[in-house]
């Protein structure tokens, strides 16, 4: 009716469904105690928490917010990627964000959630939009930059924090977005001026 075609091919819908399912199963089985980023336990050798914490959530509201993020990315950028690339991005950005929190955010003692890596995926997608001359790409990129700048200036939202029973880790958003820039280096190196066929 509106001329808007959703990316419903198998290669586009499988990756976000798998990611959403993993996060939901981990929440349903209450794996937070075993997998959350816990600085003291990581320092005692439970290093897997640096990465695994990215895929678990504090409560169902926290999960729901990130599932909306997965849906948003699917609608905007599914056709830019493949199953392989999607999971490379998800795994890399999960590790990147966890390591960034460990190294540069000593005040964060406990952390969970997909939002950091999702910011990275959105940044990569916006730059890919620009590369393929999608008119909304530059607007999306500037919108993300503006959101990140506002968060760093104004601090974490207390309203969202109350919903998710945790302080919003805005540092993870910035770290994840920088990871998205790293993933986009081949696009930037190509000056965002040519389209790559998949």
Would you write up a description of this structure?
Helix 1 packs antiparallel against helix 5, helix 5 packs parallel to helix 7 and helix 7 packs parallel to helix 10. The chain is built from 11 helices and 2 strands. A two-stranded antiparallel ribbon has the order 1-2. The two termini are 28 Å apart. It has 198 residues and is an all-alpha fold.
User: Tally of extended strands?
Assistant: 2
The secondary-structure element order is HHEHHHHEHHHHH
Let me know the largest β-sheet.
Answer: 2 strands, antiparallel
The separation of the N and C termini measures 28 Å
The rounded Rg comes to 17 Å
Share of β-strand residues: under 5%
Topology, pairings included?
Blueprint (H helix, E strand, L loop, with lengths): L9 H19 L3 H4 L1 E2 H5 L5 H4 L7 H18 L5 H22 L5 E2 L3 H17 L5 H18 L3 H7 L5 H14 L1 H5 L9
Antiparallel strand pairs: 1-2
Helix pairs in contact: 1-5, 5-7, 6-7, 6-10, 7-8, 7-10
């Amino acid at each position: 009716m509106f001329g808007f075609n959703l990316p419903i091919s198998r290669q586009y819908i499988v990756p976000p469904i798998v990611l959403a399912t993993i996060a939901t199963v981990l929440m349903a089985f209450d794996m937070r105690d075993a997998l959350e980023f816990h600085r003291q336990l990581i320092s005692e050798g439970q290093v897997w928490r640096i990465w695994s914490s990215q895929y678990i959530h504090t409560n169902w509201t926290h999960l729901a917010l990130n599932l909306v993020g997965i849906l948003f990315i699917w609608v905007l950028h599914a056709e830019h990627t493949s199953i392989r690339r999607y999971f490379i991005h998800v795994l890399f950005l999960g590790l990147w964000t966890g390591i960034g929190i460990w190294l540069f955010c000593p005040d964060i003692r406990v952390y969970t959630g997909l939002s950091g890596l999702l910011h990275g995926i959105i940044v990569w997608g916006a730059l890919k939009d620009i590369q393929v001359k999608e008119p909304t790409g530059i607007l999306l990129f500037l919108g993300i930059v503006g959101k990140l700048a506002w968060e760093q200036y104004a601090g974490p939202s207390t309203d969202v924090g109350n919903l998710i029973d945790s302080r919003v880790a805005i540092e993870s958003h910035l770290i994840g977005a920088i990871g998205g820039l790293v993933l986009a280096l081949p696009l930037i190196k190509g000056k965002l001026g040519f389209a790559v066929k998949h």
